[in-house]
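Re: weekly structure request thread

Next one in the queue (177 aa):
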Amino acid sequence: MVWLALWLGLWRPALAAEVSLMSVSLRYGLSGSSPIGEQTQTDFHQYDVAATLRLPWQWYHASGWGLSTRLIVSGGVLTGAKETNAVATVVPVVAFGRQDERFSIDMGGGGALLSDRKFGAQNFGGPFQFLWTFGANLGLFGPIGVAYHFQHYSDATVYGHDSREVDLHLFELVYRY
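Done, posted below.
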């Protein structure tokens, strides 16, 4: 169906000139009950800085709505059980939204590295975690915007069946370029 729309000229595939910086965000996240995995054994908070890069592949309809690809890279700390450890993430996402990037919904999966796998009784199993996310981005005024992302860390039982997952709700203050 997408190929038919492309063929009819309703969608305009485009190759952006290059990878470019789209936005920088200050993010705060907190854990909640998990709709996906087992319950966490501690409460978590995440503080980080994220950069979103535009990737070259995008497809937009003549109306200005369509799909684009992005890469979200972040670095910060994850706290829980009175412990603080570094965390870094790399997550490619596909976004549906306006071509002017004032509103979008995105989803993707990537990876995270933790400086320590244990937070009190909570054991992530190992330093590498798979990461799944979905979220919404909204431009408010000028270059300032807000965003929300649900983020799920999991080792997918790579390190065994005794490890636990965590779900975070990330709230973001965004500066768009």
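Residues 3-8 have pLDDT under 50 and may be disordered. The two ends are 34 Å apart (CA to CA).
Next request, please.
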